[in-house]
Specification:
There is one protein chain. This protein has two domains: 86 residues, Rna Polymerase Sigma Factor, Chain: A, CATH 1.10.1740; 149 residues, Butyryl-CoA Dehydrogenase, subunit A, domain 3 (Up-down Bundle), CATH 1.20.140. The longest helix is centred in the first third of the chain and has 23 residues. It has eleven helices and no strands.
């Protein structure tokens, strides 16, 4: 089908390829929806994702021997996140809280020489533990980022974008250096997280478990897993910013 579409411009083959990969759009949208407020409609996410699938179909190069699913997943996810950003679905007050919590975690990490516990962050914010957990629940999804954002703040990085770090992109030598450094910094930052936060990240991103499934593994509620995930992502984002 790829040969018929790319080489011969067969529109029927294009339609077949689109239909075959619609479930991928639903999968990616469903994964993202688990970290978003219930007010966000999954149907809207799937609509955004479909445009990402169209973009992937047009730009995919089968000669690179990269699985289309790998390439398309990145494009679909990016299209969904860009669509959400265009709606400005996260209230300004929520973004303000996210920056405050991130900064507090960062300061405590520097002062303590380790990742602070939830109790320590809550105390530093002048909040009770349950109130702090409530804020983490409110902040879930506020840490989504666009694949068009810069991967590094260093201007010598030749405007390398996060999208450039996916495996199917052909990087220039200097970009490859930035990619390797980014991976190493991320790995080092993850290793400094508490064991439970590392486990949640591994189960969610590597094993593709849902938050509910992770809750069964850890014997905690789905909302608690979401809070652990949110704190881990905020810690990593602040460290790497």
């Amino acid at each position: 089908m790829w040969h018929r579409y790319k080489q011969a411009g067969d529109l029927q083959a294009r339609e077949q390829l689109l239909e075959e990969h619609i479930p991928l759009v639903k999968y990616v949208a469903g994964r993202l929806a688990m970290n978003l407020p219930s007010s966000v409609d999954v149907g809207d996410l799937e609509s955004f994702g479909f445009f990402g699938l169209l973009d992937a179909l047009e730009k995919y190069d089968a000669a690179r021997n990269t699985k289309f699913e790998t390439y398309a997943t990145t494009r679909i996810r990016g299209a969904i996140i860009d669509g959400l950003r265009s709606l400005d679905w996260v209230p300004r007050s929520t973004r303000s809280k996210a920056r405050l919590v991130e900064s507090q975690i960062y300061e405590l990490t520097n002062d303590l020489g380790r990742t602070p516990t939830n109790e320590e962050v809550a105390a530093a914010l002048g909040l009770g533990l349950e109130e702090y957990y409530g804020i983490l629940s409110e902040l879930k999804g506020a840490n989504l980022f666009s694949l068009d954002e810069a991967a590094a703040s260093d201007q010598t990085a030749d405007n390398l974008k996060i999208l450039d770090l996916v495996v199917d992109q052909a990087l220039l030598p200097d970009q490859q250096v930035v990619e390797q450094e980014s991976v190493e910094e991320l790995a080092a930052a993850i290793e400094e997280l508490p064991e439970r936060e590392q486990l949640v990240l591994a189960l969610y991103y590597h094993e593709d478990l849902t938050l509910k499934e992770i809750g069964h593994v850890l014997q905690v509620s789905e909302s608690r897993v979401s809070q652990i995930h949110t704190k881990a992502i905020m810690t990593l984002r602040k460290r790497l910013s």
